[in-house]
């Protein structure tokens, strides 16, 4: 079905649209993830890294990176005829964090990307979503050459609550990214149901 048109006389389906954030540290693969899965050409706000930014942009572990997101990445994926996700990739560097409040407005949940070479870079994102009670999952982006650890070791290193989903993913692979996004939607729905139960109970 194409939006606004019906197939063989069926009434058009009005899709439910959900907003998902993609967060994490600098150079962790947020722009790549949005681009891998978006069915539209992603909107990117990348700029070249400059000498002026060298003292504040820690590129250790991602020395080959020469651009950075300064506002957001935006993409869209239709999971089913009646379910569309809008993806917003947040900027990774601390000096752009003021935009997170704006981007997180109305978000169903978030994917926090992590890199095992720089795990501490995702602490700020984990803390941000925990403090605002926004459901999230952590996706460990499996970079080539990065050390592999048992998932429970990563959970312990990140000090994640048992209820926070943690999975291995490849931000370049469409199916892997879809799995992570479906995981966020399911986790957010379960999280909302638990909160409703707690209020009514």
TrEMBL record:
InterPro entries: Gliding_Motility_GTPase, Gpn, P-loop_NTPase
One Gene Ontology term of the molecular function aspect: GTP binding
Keyword annotations of the record: GTP-binding, Hydrolase, Nucleotide-binding, Receptor
Keyword Hydrolase applies: yes
UniProt keyword GTP-binding, yes or no: yes
CDD domains documented for this protein: Ras_like_GTPase
Coiled-coil features, chain-numbered ranges: none
Pfam family, one: ATP_bind_1
Family: Belongs to the GPN-loop GTPase family.
Protein name: Signal recognition particle receptor subunit beta
